[in-house]
Amino acid sequence: MQRIILHMDLDSFYASIEEKRKPEIAGKPVVICVFSGRTADSGAVATANYKARELGIKSGMPIMLARKRANSETVFLAYDIEFYREVSDRIMDLIETECDILEQASIDEAYMDVSLKAGSFENAARIAERIKEIIREQEGLTCSIGIGPNKLIAKMAGKMKKPDGLTIVREREVAAFMEKMPIEKIHGIGKKTAELLNDLDIKTADDLAKSSLLILEQRLGKNKARLMQDKARGIDDSPVEQRVAQQISRMKTLAEDSDDIETIYSTMRAMSPDIRKKIQKKQATFRTVSIITIDSKLETQTRSETISQTDDVELAMAAARSLLSKWLDENKGRKLRRVGIRVSNLEYGRKQKSLGDFL
Ligand code: DGT
Ligand code: CA
After folding, report:
1. What are the residues whose beta carbon lies below 5 Å from ligand 2 (ion)?
2. CATH number of the domain that residue 52 is part of
3. How far is Cα 314 from Cα 273, in angstroms, rounded to an integer?
4. What pLDDT is attached to residue 298?
5. Distance 91 CA to ligand 2 centre (A)
6. Where residue 321 sits, what CATH number does that domain have?
7. Which of 242, 240, 245 is nearest to 89 (CA)?
8. Which of 79, 106, 122 is the last residue of a domain?
9. Looking at the 3D structure of the chain, how many domains does it have?
10. pLDDT for res 243
11. What CATH number should be reported for the domain holding residue 92?
């Protein structure tokens, strides 16, 4: 059976989420910053939307430099990782049902094996269109998708057209697709290896594919030499592997900002059936319970407590309530806008007795 793999990568992920939740900034250059807090502008850029990229602002750049390149319209925002994780979780849940196996590769990208479900590249393209539509309709975000006979080609195909792209590379097109590819653009060839290969006058995938294995082995070691040459030929047998979730979480905005424990706790409670459902579906147990608090000034804090491994959401709720009570005691005068609950340190397939078993 031919393998058909999709790679999905959300476009300017953090920035697009912020544009979606703050409609007033749509259309402007947006820069998402991780402020280190030392001085007002110290820290780095996490990502920038495409408008800001046109100004030369990009991931990893010092905020100070981004400010220099910005125009008067540019919006700088502090990053809100809890919120981005929540959106990411929802999207992964949405697209999981569209494929045979989903492997989440980072917060905003996933490999999907659709060999069985699609059966042909034409059908895979239809699945890709549907995935784009679902993400657009449900979350208001765009993504770019690559389709190929393996993970390597799918990932590289997805990079060809961004944002909102769809690129298909069939088995018979792999050789032409790879031929002129500069080696630094081959996924999995790092900067150092690329420099080393450049020293050997190897500039393109084709150069690498045709170069002497013996010489490559001398410079890179046996295993790596072979692996690099496989990549240059577009060969990749690695399977799409379902990764089990490390955590389950839910967030909710309060009807109005509040510092009243009963009001806040009832909002937390409203999330418990959802968490219970996910735990049951995954047959997981957890050991750590966290609450995420976002106050009216949008400051986020996370507090955690470790309990014994369980699948009982009532125990999580009890821990969450005591964490919340402590937060309120220590933050008098501050009100909460959003709250979240998270269970983590998950284990699978080793079901522990729940509280109910003892009653
Ligand atoms: P894209 O995929 O080119 O349209 O743009 P992004 O922003 O989605 O970039 P990507 O896919 O490389 O990374 C996904 C998210 O990861 C991105 O929205 C922000 C975060 N990220 C990427 N690079 C950095 C970095 O250097 N520092 C930090 N803190 N976060 C980063
Ligand atoms: Ca991305």
Report:
1. 9-10, 13, 108
2. 3.40.1170.60
3. 10
4. 81
5. 13
6. 3.30.1490.100
7. 245
8. 79
9. 4
10. 77
11. 3.30.70.270
The partner residues of 230 in beta bridges, in order of sequence, read: none
Q: What is the pLDDT of residue 106?
A: 94
Domain holding 329, by residue range, is: 247-352
Q: Which residue's structure tokens are 């959401």? A: 313
Q: Spell out, as residue ranges, where the chain has pLDDT lower than 50.
A: 351-355, 357-359
Ligand lying closest to the C-alpha of residue 11: 1
pLDDT at residue 299 in the model: 85
- pLDDT value, residue 238: 96
What CATH number does residue 211 fall under? 1.10.150.20
C-beta separation of 54 from 41 below 8 A: no
Q: Which is it for strands 101-106 and 75-78: parallel, antiparallel or unpaired? A: unpaired
Residue nearest to atom 7 of ligand 1 (CA): 12
Q: Does one domain contain both 219 and 256?
A: no
In a domain, 242, yes or no: no
Q: Decide which of 62, 79, 96 is a domain's last residue.
A: 79
Under DSSP, the state recorded for 354 is P
Ligand 1 centroid from CA 254, angstroms: 29
Phi, psi for 258 (deg, rounded to 5): -150, 155
- Residue 56: phi, psi to the nearest 5? 90, 20
Ligand 1 neighbours (beta carbon < 6 A) = 9-14, 34, 44, 46-47, 59-60, 107-108, 162-163
Q: Which residues are annotated as catalytic?
A: 109
